[in-house]
Amino acid sequence: MAIQHAKDSTFKEMVQTEGVTVVNFWASWCGPCRMFAPILEEFEREADDSVKVVKVNVDDNPVTSSQFQIMSIPATVIFKDGQPLYKEIGILPKAALQQLVASQ
Fold it and tell me: Going by DSSP bridges, is the β-strand pair 75-80/83-89 parallel, antiparallel, or unpaired?
C-alpha cells in the first residue's frame, strides 16, 4: 500500500480504520521533513498490509494540524483503530518506527 495524502476533509475517515495508522505531519519547506521522507517511504514499503501511512501537509491542512496541536514538524502520530496513541516530534529512525508500531 502506498503512502496516502490526507486533507482536512478526508483525514478522519483515513485514520478511522482497524489496525495501525502512522501519520506524518510535514511541509515542503521543512528540511528535516525532507530528510525523514525516504525513511518513511522505506518503512511503508517494508510494513505489512495492516499498517497504513498517511502524510498531512501542515500548510494545506491547518484544521487537522491544529486539532493535534502540531507546533513543530516533522511530527509523527501513531493511531490504533482510529485513536491517537503516541506522538513524536522530529526525525525517527526506521527501527524506532518499527518498534513503535510493533508495540501498539
Answer: antiparallel
Domain count for the chain, please give it: 1
CA atoms within 13 A on the CB side of 56: 27
Tens digit of each residue's pLDDT (9 = 90 or more) over 2-26? 899 999 999 999 998 888 999 999 9
**All cell numbers assigned to 66:** 491544529
Q: Which residues are catalytic?
A: 30, 33
Supply 7's cell numbers: 486533507
Task: Say which CATH number the domain at 10 has.
Answer: 3.40.30.10
pTM of the model: 0.94
Q: Which residues span the domain enclosing 77?
A: 4-102
Query: In sequence order, what E strands does 32-99 have?
Result: 51-57, 75-80, 83-89
